[in-house]
Amino acid sequence: MQNYNFFFHIRPRKVPGQALRFTLTYGLGGAAALMIFVQLVTGLLLNFAYEPVSVHAYLSVQHIQTEQVYGKLIRNLHHWTGHFLVIVIYLHLLRVFFSGAYFGCRRRSWYSGLVLLLLVLLANFTGYLLPWDQLAFWAVTIASSMLPYIPVFGVFLQKLILGGAEVSEETLHIFHSFHTTLLPLTFLFCMFYHFWRIRKSGGIKIKKQSKQEILPVIPELMTRELAFAAVVLCFLLLFSMFIDAPLTAIANPNLTPVSVKAPWYFLWLQELLLHMQPTLALCVLPGAFAVFLTLLPFIDQTTEKPSKLTKLIMITFVSIIIILTITGIWFRGDGMKLVLPW
Which residue in 172, 159, 74, 72 sits closest to 131, CA to CA? Predict the structure, then answer.
């Protein structure tokens, strides 16, 4: 067993048999960890050929897709895995919420998970601009144009992120630096801390039984994890083989597209702006949701289960986000006018 010392440092040696049930977690946490690893590896490979300088950035992406061996596949894999990661980590958050696995000693796991969700969104957003095409340039322009609506700090935050008043080559340098250095390092630290806290908290939350079967992690748990990881990886590879990551014309600040949308994971905010006052859309409602997620471990502590009211609040927030996102993706046409998708 000495060869597994590092593995057992972040994982237990034995687990209850009922903890191996797939329906207990649906493998969402493991899938997210695998996707983060895929992102790190493919991102490192892409960075060898990428040049973070406006025109050269676009040409280097074209070169990766047409000249580099397996370049298109690697870029597709990096692009689509990042998008699937957003979905998986949201689903993982909901699974943890409905199972009530965020009370007591599990609070730190919950908060580190929220930090990981924020990092996933930041990684996707900073990486979105790097191809330097029309789609990326104007999507980031629209998303960053929402910031000035935030009272007091909005304009300062916009200039800090963009390196000026608008998206420029300076923005590309900032986004590339964050995307390839600070965010990956923070990801690794937070991910291992998250796993460590889960182990310190006793692993996956399960119902306590007077008699329960105890099984060794190797091979019982490890075999299941490797099999599921193979399925997830095969799905990502097949998806990336048949569906290419988008690459439109080179970015042109003087040519605004007919329809300009924020990245899909921020589309619900753009939709809110179309329906209500900016401060309410960008501060009050998102802020209320953030406060709700932060205070969750201190609500319903006596039962250590989310109450019906707490579930109703969560379902309401999530439903609004999903409906607005779907509306923005499929029901908004030229000039952000409502259209039918068929």
Answer: 172
